[in-house]
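Hi Y.,

Following your request, here is the sequence exactly as I used it, all 138 residues.
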Amino acid sequence: TVNSAGRGEISGDIKNFKMPNPDEPGTDIWYASVEGPEAAAYIRGTATLVNGHAVIVLPAHFRAVGIQAGMTVQLTPRSADSLGLASVERTLARIVVKELHHGVGNYEFDWEVKSVRKGFENYQVVRPSNDVAASRGQ
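Below is the corresponding structure, written out as tokens. Let me know if you'd prefer a different format.
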């Protein structure tokens, strides 16, 4: 359907993608979409801590689609010797990461940033049946 703002929306019981299974000809692999109570975007990667410090520069395409309010950052050290990690600065432009306890570790870590999509800040989770416009808070 097209809502009152002219945006197309699709709904269903489950959203999937499928691809041929390269390991078992004649079968397909089906993955279902991750879903939640917001219209969100994410980006993820691996970075390297140097002397307990790292800066992750987020790409322009993520800055274009996300909002900073409520943005979340998840960090996973890839070293068993890690003292732990903290995101001490979070903006749509960059994430600054430091090792806890004034650590000076040098190792890789995985990161993921999630943000609500720009223009969808008022996404309505509970709404009247057949009310498509409510997804944009209208």
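The radius of gyration is 20 Å.

Thanks again,
Q.
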